[in-house]
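Researcher: We're teaching a course module on how sequence relates to structure. For the next exercise, students receive a sequence and then see the predicted structure as tokens, so they can try to spot secondary structure elements on their own. Here is the exercise chain.
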Amino acid sequence: MKRKKAVARKKRKKKIVLAYSGGLDTSIILKWLQENYDAEVITYTADIGQELNKSKIIKNAKKFGVKKIIINDLKDEFVKNYVYPMIRGHALYEGCYLLGTSIARPLIAKDQIKTAKKFNAYAVSHGSTGKGNDQVRFELGYHCFGPKIKVIAPWRIWKLKSRTDLINYANQKKIPIPKDKKGAPPFSVDDNLFHTSTEGKVLENPRNSPPEFIYQRTESPEKSPNKCTYITIGFKNSDPVSINGAKMPPSKLLQRLNLVAGKNGIGRVDLVENRFIGIKSRGVYETPGGTVLMFAHRAIESVTLDKDTVHAKDSIMPKYAELIYNGYWFSKDRFRLQKIIDKNKKKVNGLIKLKLYKGNIILQSRQTKNKSYSVQKVSFEENNFFNRTKIEKFINFHKKKL
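Model: And here is the predicted structure for the students to work with:
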């Protein structure tokens, strides 16, 4: 009996959990893993609000004989526990990137490892290229939650060296190659509920203007409505909770803002960024709802937080953003900075009214019960709420520092 059990265990195949989108790259990786490893490949897909065709993912995976196809809905967790904390920190990498790809990878890595443990897999795999940041972000996340689980990174070990090699391999293995709107192989696109990024092809040369057809969730300002749109965002404990008085869960709120802001041509960024691994890359990002939230959050903090708190947050932001960009979401340093960011978040409550018009966000009003802003103190009318006699002493004190 014991011998039979031992034989059964020996015959049992090892398992690999692959981060799988169902697209060209991960379909090629799936086939490659099956050809090069004596293991069962389990496909894992995190639903974080990207354009997701579940039936297509299942159909494509089944074509390769995959028996376990995992698709986990993480949209609310993504927005509540990853996007919102980052918005509270006003994180902008190199002055303009809202970190839409960077903030998604830690959650995917954490849940992928959870899935690997559930199925007792010995390895996980991802489709990040050998030149990109995502390989670092994924693998730092893997290390945090599954340090003993093996990582297979095909782009660093296989013989396929380029996009052309990838397409040739796909043709050999009869893997369908999708086309872009011009009938050519697609750009490299990443999307989730927070943003869409587009890289590759004509964008690799920074002299080239982005073709209009690459934009997926924003209208051009020229084609956006000639009539402005008004929205009021409600904040509670520093997080957005409502739009125009209607309370919404995190994923629904961001989805609604994406539609309204995208329609009004808001949220486009064309960026040449400095990658963590040391090379420059050019990408076009669309973050319509996130751009509005960042603007609105700064506005509500301006009337709810004191100067020292606001300036402390601003001083740590570049480091905070860099930690997220580099994949250190689960690091002690990021947690330490998050505590500084969230120290007075219970004071950040109220309403921000905005006007959206042809790529612009125009502040209309701030409303809060918080007493940080005093109309009496700031008024040009004569009043007794501010002692002007102390100002001369204040100036003389600072003269000594010159």
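Model: If you want an answer key for the exercise: Residues 12-74+103-183 form a domain with the Rossmann fold fold (CATH 3.40.50.620). The two ends are 88 Å apart (CA to CA).
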